[in-house]
Amino acid sequence: MTTESDITPSAADRHHPMLKLALELGPLMIFFFANLRGQWLVERFPALAELGGPLFVATALFMAATVLSLVVSKIVLGHLPIMPFVSGIVVVIFGSLSIWLQNETFIKMKPTIVNTLFGVALLGGLAFGRSLLGYVFNAAFQLDAVGWRKLTIRWGVFFLFLAVLNEVVWRNFSDDSWVAFKVWGTMPITIIFTLAQMPLVLKHSINPETDGEK
Question: pLDDT digit string (tens) for 13-25?
Fold first, then answer.
Protein backbone atom coordinates (compact mmCIF):
# COMPACT_ATOMS: atom_id res chain seq x y z
CA MET A 1 0.00 0.00 0.00
CA THR A 2 1.30 3.42 -0.96
CA THR A 3 0.63 6.55 1.05
CA GLU A 4 1.69 10.04 0.05
CA SER A 5 1.71 13.52 1.48
CA ASP A 6 -1.49 15.50 1.15
CA ILE A 7 0.41 18.38 -0.40
CA THR A 8 2.67 16.37 -2.70
CA PRO A 9 0.63 16.15 -5.93
CA SER A 10 1.07 13.09 -8.07
CA ALA A 11 0.47 13.17 -11.82
CA ALA A 12 -3.04 11.85 -11.20
CA ASP A 13 -3.67 14.56 -8.58
CA ARG A 14 -2.72 17.25 -11.09
CA HIS A 15 -5.07 15.79 -13.69
CA HIS A 16 -7.97 15.38 -11.26
CA PRO A 17 -7.77 18.33 -8.83
CA MET A 18 -11.54 18.60 -8.37
CA LEU A 19 -11.86 14.89 -7.76
CA LYS A 20 -9.13 15.06 -5.09
CA LEU A 21 -10.97 17.95 -3.41
CA ALA A 22 -14.29 16.09 -3.58
CA LEU A 23 -12.75 12.97 -2.06
CA GLU A 24 -11.36 14.94 0.87
CA LEU A 25 -14.38 17.15 1.56
CA GLY A 26 -17.17 14.83 0.39
CA PRO A 27 -17.42 12.66 3.54
CA LEU A 28 -17.56 15.75 5.78
CA MET A 29 -20.33 17.30 3.70
CA ILE A 30 -22.29 14.05 3.84
CA PHE A 31 -21.83 13.97 7.62
CA PHE A 32 -23.12 17.54 7.95
CA PHE A 33 -26.21 17.15 5.78
CA ALA A 34 -27.06 13.67 7.10
CA ASN A 35 -27.09 15.08 10.64
CA LEU A 36 -29.13 18.07 9.48
CA ARG A 37 -31.70 15.94 7.65
CA GLY A 38 -31.47 12.80 9.78
CA GLN A 39 -35.21 12.53 10.43
CA TRP A 40 -35.98 13.01 6.74
CA LEU A 41 -33.54 10.24 5.82
CA VAL A 42 -35.11 7.87 8.35
CA GLU A 43 -38.57 8.59 6.92
CA ARG A 44 -37.33 7.85 3.39
CA PHE A 45 -35.22 4.85 4.40
CA PRO A 46 -36.81 3.26 7.51
CA ALA A 47 -33.95 0.78 7.90
CA LEU A 48 -31.73 3.67 9.04
CA ALA A 49 -33.85 3.96 12.19
CA GLU A 50 -32.03 0.87 13.50
CA LEU A 51 -28.88 2.99 13.79
CA GLY A 52 -30.37 5.42 16.31
CA GLY A 53 -30.76 9.21 16.21
CA PRO A 54 -29.64 11.64 13.49
CA LEU A 55 -26.04 11.79 14.69
CA PHE A 56 -25.73 7.99 14.51
CA VAL A 57 -27.24 7.97 11.01
CA ALA A 58 -24.81 10.69 10.00
CA THR A 59 -21.94 8.73 11.54
CA ALA A 60 -22.79 5.58 9.59
CA LEU A 61 -22.98 7.50 6.31
CA PHE A 62 -19.75 9.33 7.20
CA MET A 63 -18.00 6.00 7.69
CA ALA A 64 -19.28 4.64 4.38
CA ALA A 65 -18.34 7.83 2.52
CA THR A 66 -14.87 7.86 4.09
CA VAL A 67 -14.14 4.26 3.08
CA LEU A 68 -15.50 4.91 -0.42
CA SER A 69 -13.34 8.02 -0.83
CA LEU A 70 -10.21 6.08 0.15
CA VAL A 71 -11.04 3.28 -2.29
CA VAL A 72 -11.64 5.74 -5.14
CA SER A 73 -8.44 7.61 -4.24
CA LYS A 74 -6.45 4.39 -4.43
CA ILE A 75 -8.02 3.32 -7.74
CA VAL A 76 -8.13 6.65 -9.57
CA LEU A 77 -5.29 8.64 -8.02
CA GLY A 78 -3.05 5.67 -7.33
CA HIS A 79 -2.29 6.42 -3.67
CA LEU A 80 -3.79 6.97 -0.25
CA PRO A 81 -3.21 10.46 1.24
CA ILE A 82 -1.70 9.75 4.63
CA MET A 83 -3.76 12.10 6.81
CA PRO A 84 -7.19 11.06 5.42
CA PHE A 85 -6.02 7.44 5.64
CA VAL A 86 -5.14 7.67 9.35
CA SER A 87 -8.27 9.71 10.00
CA GLY A 88 -10.34 7.13 8.12
CA ILE A 89 -9.11 4.31 10.36
CA VAL A 90 -10.10 6.27 13.46
CA VAL A 91 -13.48 7.17 11.88
CA VAL A 92 -14.31 3.51 11.31
CA ILE A 93 -13.19 2.40 14.78
CA PHE A 94 -14.80 5.20 16.79
CA GLY A 95 -17.85 5.43 14.53
CA SER A 96 -18.51 1.71 14.96
CA LEU A 97 -18.17 2.04 18.74
CA SER A 98 -20.57 4.99 18.77
CA ILE A 99 -23.26 3.10 16.87
CA TRP A 100 -22.74 -0.22 18.64
CA LEU A 101 -22.82 1.29 22.14
CA GLN A 102 -25.25 4.09 21.16
CA ASN A 103 -22.79 6.55 22.69
CA GLU A 104 -22.07 9.75 20.76
CA THR A 105 -18.92 10.41 22.78
CA PHE A 106 -16.78 8.11 20.63
CA ILE A 107 -17.42 9.85 17.30
CA LYS A 108 -17.15 13.27 18.95
CA MET A 109 -13.73 12.38 20.33
CA LYS A 110 -12.45 11.18 16.96
CA PRO A 111 -10.98 14.61 15.95
CA THR A 112 -9.40 14.87 19.40
CA ILE A 113 -7.71 11.49 19.01
CA VAL A 114 -6.51 12.11 15.44
CA ASN A 115 -5.15 15.62 16.08
CA THR A 116 -3.48 14.54 19.32
CA LEU A 117 -1.89 11.62 17.49
CA PHE A 118 -0.45 13.90 14.79
CA GLY A 119 0.65 16.54 17.30
CA VAL A 120 2.40 14.09 19.63
CA ALA A 121 4.04 12.30 16.70
CA LEU A 122 5.50 15.54 15.31
CA LEU A 123 6.70 16.94 18.62
CA GLY A 124 7.85 13.53 19.81
CA GLY A 125 9.90 13.10 16.67
CA LEU A 126 11.76 16.32 17.44
CA ALA A 127 12.61 14.96 20.88
CA PHE A 128 14.52 12.18 19.08
CA GLY A 129 16.15 14.61 16.67
CA ARG A 130 13.88 13.86 13.71
CA SER A 131 11.56 16.24 11.88
CA LEU A 132 8.81 13.89 10.72
CA LEU A 133 7.19 16.75 8.84
CA GLY A 134 10.25 16.87 6.62
CA TYR A 135 9.75 13.24 5.60
CA VAL A 136 6.17 13.99 4.58
CA PHE A 137 6.57 17.38 2.89
CA ASN A 138 10.09 17.22 1.45
CA ALA A 139 8.82 16.33 -2.03
CA ALA A 140 6.79 19.55 -2.08
CA PHE A 141 9.51 21.97 -0.90
CA GLN A 142 13.00 21.95 0.58
CA LEU A 143 13.84 23.72 3.85
CA ASP A 144 16.99 23.97 5.91
CA ALA A 145 17.17 22.14 9.26
CA VAL A 146 16.09 25.19 11.25
CA GLY A 147 13.09 25.71 8.96
CA TRP A 148 11.91 22.10 9.29
CA ARG A 149 12.27 22.27 13.07
CA LYS A 150 10.28 25.50 13.37
CA LEU A 151 7.58 24.30 10.97
CA THR A 152 7.30 20.97 12.76
CA ILE A 153 6.90 22.68 16.14
CA ARG A 154 4.21 24.98 14.75
CA TRP A 155 2.24 22.14 13.15
CA GLY A 156 2.61 19.96 16.23
CA VAL A 157 1.27 22.70 18.49
CA PHE A 158 -1.48 23.49 15.97
CA PHE A 159 -2.70 19.88 15.94
CA LEU A 160 -2.82 19.88 19.74
CA PHE A 161 -4.71 23.19 19.61
CA LEU A 162 -7.30 21.60 17.29
CA ALA A 163 -7.62 18.67 19.69
CA VAL A 164 -8.30 20.98 22.65
CA LEU A 165 -10.68 23.11 20.57
CA ASN A 166 -12.69 20.04 19.59
CA GLU A 167 -12.99 19.04 23.23
CA VAL A 168 -14.22 22.52 24.18
CA VAL A 169 -16.83 22.59 21.41
CA TRP A 170 -18.35 19.13 21.80
CA ARG A 171 -18.46 19.33 25.59
CA ASN A 172 -20.08 22.79 25.76
CA PHE A 173 -22.30 23.08 22.68
CA SER A 174 -25.13 21.20 21.01
CA ASP A 175 -24.63 18.31 18.60
CA ASP A 176 -25.64 20.48 15.65
CA SER A 177 -23.15 23.19 16.67
CA TRP A 178 -20.37 20.63 16.98
CA VAL A 179 -21.11 19.13 13.56
CA ALA A 180 -21.22 22.61 11.99
CA PHE A 181 -17.91 23.49 13.64
CA LYS A 182 -16.33 20.23 12.45
CA VAL A 183 -17.32 20.97 8.85
CA TRP A 184 -17.29 24.77 8.57
CA GLY A 185 -14.89 25.76 11.34
CA THR A 186 -11.92 23.39 11.29
CA MET A 187 -11.22 23.71 7.55
CA PRO A 188 -11.03 27.55 7.42
CA ILE A 189 -8.88 27.58 10.57
CA THR A 190 -6.49 25.08 8.99
CA ILE A 191 -6.32 27.00 5.70
CA ILE A 192 -5.56 30.27 7.51
CA PHE A 193 -2.88 28.58 9.60
CA THR A 194 -1.30 27.00 6.51
CA LEU A 195 -1.15 30.32 4.67
CA ALA A 196 0.36 31.95 7.76
CA GLN A 197 3.32 29.55 7.50
CA MET A 198 4.33 30.70 4.03
CA PRO A 199 6.72 33.46 5.24
CA LEU A 200 8.63 30.85 7.26
CA VAL A 201 8.68 28.44 4.32
CA LEU A 202 9.98 31.13 1.96
CA LYS A 203 12.59 32.32 4.48
CA HIS A 204 14.06 28.85 5.03
CA SER A 205 13.64 27.43 1.51
CA ILE A 206 16.79 26.08 -0.11
CA ASN A 207 17.68 25.15 -3.66
CA PRO A 208 19.51 21.80 -3.64
CA GLU A 209 20.97 22.33 -7.12
CA THR A 210 22.31 25.78 -6.29
CA ASP A 211 23.65 24.66 -2.93
CA GLY A 212 25.33 21.70 -4.57
CA GLU A 213 27.22 23.98 -6.96
CA LYS A 214 28.66 26.10 -4.14
Answer: 554 556 766 777 7
